[in-house]
Write a structure and sequence with these properties.
The protein is α/β, with parallel strands linked by helices. It contains 9 helices and 11 strands. The radius of gyration is 19 Å and the shape is globular. The structure holds zinc ion.
Length: 308
């Protein structure tokens, strides 16, 4: 019998990742992949990742046009929170650079609606890169300098040391080569600049409670699920210092609960943008749980920040 070639962890490079016994399912958009993927766990840093790795073409097919990041309607509960979040981020960025126009590059900038919100609270100059052509068009129509494609493919020569902040929210878990993405971000920052982002956290109560239904899997779009230890190691390898990783205030467990109801109880209503009609209710229902895990530092989503 032919033995499987050694599989290396996409974050730390350790060989011999173990198979996680779960059948990856797309609860939100029911995207069917053309081949079977399994989930592996690194024995060193605990990162879980999809294997085999999809090709760039396959990757694009994982994002339907009704993908939630591409729609304006967040619902009654999430909508105001999204705007509040942009305000809090803008204020936090101003505290880092109080006396200047902040040059910010966002990776996976979508339609740049967050730029519109943030501009109300500070002096920024924005740029970004986005994989969806319709979103790039919309961003340029709004007047933003947004490149089409991925950061992995982007020629960053014109952008070397050009930014104070490179942001990547819900991004590193989607990319084929997270180390390359962070190395390029590092090259684009001025000395003293920061990379800042957010992504799902495996070392969370959310993951432990929901297991295969955990929203952090977001199969097949999430290619790696990080632990704080793995993320810190990757940031250090990409040349960053002053690395901090902490629980984020987030209601991701609402989506985990939605996945659980759909997978376990065959709840299959008509969905809009990957959300069931009771999604807003689910967010309210999980709010105390999310507060609890956040207070314990074991939230399903984590923030990171690191300095060049
Ligand atoms: Zn690893």
């Amino acid at each position: 019998m032919a033995s499987e070639p050694a599989i290396s962890c996409v974050v730390c490079g350790t060989e011999g990742a173990e198979i996680i016994p779960l059948q990856p399912q797309d609860f939100e958009y029911r995207v069917q992949t053309k081949r079977n993927f399994s989930v592996r766990a690194c024995r060193n840093c605990g990162t879980q990742f999809v294997h085999p790795r999809p090709t760039p073409d396959e990757l694009i097919s994982f994002y339907p046009l009704d993908y939630h990041a591409y729609n304006e309607d967040h619902g009654r509960v999430a909508g105001p929170l999204v705007e509040l979040r942009a305000k809090m981020r803008a204020k936090a960025f101003k505290r880092l650079f109080p006396d200047k126009t902040i040059r910010l590059f966002d990776v996976g900038s979508g339609d740049c609606r967050h730029f519109v919100h943030m501009e109300k609270y500070g002096d920024f100059s924005f740029a970004g890169v986005e994989i969806k052509p319709e979103m790039v068009e919309e961003s340029r129509r709004k007047g933003y300098d947004v490149e089409f494609g991925t950061l992995e493919d982007l020629d960053i020569e014109p952008y070397r040391q050009a930014f104070d902040l490179v942001t990547m929210y819900q991004l590193l878990e989607h990319v084929l080569d997270p180390r390359q993405v962070l190395e390029k971000a590092q090259a684009m920052l001025s000395p003293g600049g920061y990379v800042i982002g957010q992504l799902p956290c495996l070392d969370s109560i959310d993951y432990r409670v929901f297991g295969p239904y955990w929203a952090g899997y977001h199969f097949p779009r999430h290619l790696q699920m990080f632990t704080p230890a793995g993320l810190k190691e990757l940031l250090a390898k990409a040349g960053f210092s002053h690395i901090s990783v902490s629980s984020a205030a987030h209601l991701q467990a609402g989506l985990s609960l939605q996945n659980y109801l759909m997978g376990r109880f065959r709840y299959q209503p008509v969905m809009k943008f990957g959300k069931t009609p009771i999604y807003s209710l689910l967010l309210l229902a999980v709010a105390p749980f999310c507060l609890f895990e956040y207070v314990l530092g074991k939230g399903g989503m984590m923030n990171f920040m690191a300095k060049k």
